[in-house]
Every structure is written in structure tokens, then in C-alpha cells.
Amino acid sequence: MHGGCGCVAGPCRGSRHSGGRSATHGRKARLLSPRFDLEVRDVDSKLRPSFWLGAVTAFSLLCAAASSHALQATYVWEPDAGFAGSGTLVLDDPNITDAANFGFPGAIVDDDSLVSLAFSFPANAETFDLAAFDLQNVANDLAVGAGGWSASGGVLTNVFLFSGDDPMGGIQLVRLGSDGPAAFADLSLVSGGFEEHRGRWRLVPEPSTGALFALGLGFLATRRRRA
């Protein structure tokens, strides 16, 4: 029996004789040691830059989505069965609030909203680019229907026609246009070559604001795991 504690045999648990209390206290002391505090600060210092980097990225993507919403819309050539070709058509107008559906009978998207038009004719290895044509030349002309540019279901539906030539470049006549949803692209070369295609101009969908924000949050989560 230990004196004063009433224990018959063995060390007293929790008594000052056994050292149990001091061991427990030692474990607590280690948990609260300056070394542990430094380790926590080190982890925190690693996480904070990653957090803010991810937050800034998410916010930037959200702002990009908001700024790109409306104004500019890009369409690509979608050929009908049996035809080919590739091309892009870009419109830029404040009245394009929904690039998939706009125009008459709503707000008019003006003729001069066209900022880019290009088309490649694969059979003759020729590429047409509106930027290379002088619209002041009487032989080159761009005309858009009275209702201006319009789209429905992601497809351009208005009437338009560009016709022009570039004899020095080997093009006798190029015609790009649309009679509504049905579009056409015809090429006649000075050398006698000819090529025609049929299709439509379809909207290139842009990622939604929510998708861009989710991408930013995913980037944030990845950075936190790596940290």
C-alpha cells in the first residue's frame, strides 16, 4: 500500500506518485508547443496565397463572362450533306443580347455589325477574307436585307450577299450569302476553276457565366489540395 493514497499494489493512476498526470500534461504541452504553433502558421501561410489566387481567378472569369455576354457573336460554317468548306462570321452590335436569337421583329442589328467574314474553299485551296477586299471598289459589294442581321435557334436567318472579285489574286467571282437559314458560298477562278457549297452559319456557343465561375472554384479547390 502506498502511503496516503490507499493503493494496494502498482503505481497510482492520476496520483502525483505515478506520473500519470504529468504525462497527460506533457502531451498537452506538446500540442501547444511553440513548434506546433509555427507549423500551423506555416500551413496557413501556404493556404492563404492559394485561396486568394483561386478567388481572384474565379472573379476574373466571372467578369469575362459578363463582359462577353452580348455585343459580339461568332458563327461558323456548317455544311449540308455532300458539301464542304469552312468559315467564320463575326457580328458585333449592342443589340445582340442573345446571340442565338435576335433581330427582326426585335431591335435592328445594323448592316455594319459585320466585323469579320472568311471562307475556305478546299477543292481549289482558296481562302476568301472580307478584310482583304476593298468595298469601295464597284466590283465588290456587301448587302444586307432590310431587317438587318438576325438569328433564330443559333442559326443566322437574314438575307445577305457579298459579291466581289480579285483578278490579281486569281478570283474571278466570289459570292457568300444567305437566303435565310440556307446559306451559300460560290467561287469562280480566273483559271476556270469553280466551287460551290451549301450550308448554314451556326453560332459558336460561349461558356455560361455559371460554368466559368464553377471553373474558377474548381481551380481554387485544386490549389488548396496541392497546398
How would you describe the overall organization of this protein?
Strands 4-3-2-1-11-10-9-8-5 form a 9-stranded antiparallel beta sheet, with no helix packed on it. It has 3 helices and 11 strands, in the order H-H-E-E-E-E-E-E-E-E-E-E-E-H. The longest helix is centred in the first third of the chain and has 35 residues. 29% of the residues lie in helices and 31% in strands. The protein is α+β, with helices and mostly antiparallel strands and 227 residues long. About 19% of the residues have low confidence.
Give me some keywords for this one:
227 residues; alpha+beta; 9-stranded antiparallel β-sheet; two-stranded antiparallel sheet; 3 helices; 11 strands
**Structural shape:** globular
* Strand and helix order: HHEEEEEEEEEEEH
- Biggest sheet: strands, sense, closure? 9 strands, antiparallel
Number of strands: 11
Describe, in short, the structure shown:
With 227 residues, the chain is an alpha+beta fold.
Q: In terms of topology, how is this protein built?
A:
Layout: H1 20-31, H2 34-68, E1 71-79, E2 86-93, E3 114-121, E4 126-129, E5 141-144, E6 151-152, E7 155-156, E8 159-166, E9 171-179, E10 183-189, E11 194-203, H3 209-226
Antiparallel strand pairs: 1-2, 1-11, 2-3, 3-4, 5-8, 6-7, 8-9, 9-10, 10-11
Helix pairs in contact: 2-3
